[in-house]
Amino acid sequence: MSTLLFYLEMLIFSIGLIIVLFFGFIKIQLI
Q: Where are the transmembrane segments (predicted)?
């Protein structure tokens, strides 16, 4: 159970990081 929760947390964190990098890339392209 604890391992599953840890895996889910890491998955959410990685998705959030990808979104931040994606929007950062868009801002660079707009500038």
A: 6-26
